[in-house]
Amino acid sequence: TMLRSYAEHRADLDSPHRAASVERGGMLALVFLNNNLHAAHHDRPALAWYALPAYHRRHRDRFATQGALTYAGYRDVVRRFAFRPHDQVIHPAYRSPAS
Asked: In a 10 Å sphere around its CB, with 0-12 CB exposed, 13-18 middle and 19+ buried, how is residue 59 labelled?
């Protein structure tokens, strides 16, 4: 679960970078009900999980031109971010109690 939420969500409220797609989710795609195709899920949240792969394939170019992040697979996510930060830790909408 940590890997999935880490790879597919960013604290970027006003950008298509908020949701990413992990194109080859392998066995984890089935475990996560194809939420590895998170840009497609955010585009059509009511779409059934089993319809996400076909929808993602049909609209992949549009997601890419809109700036959605795409990873080849979960191995790609680990390779890129095992030793580097992926995102800001503090959510951009967070307001400290002192402010």
From this structure: middle
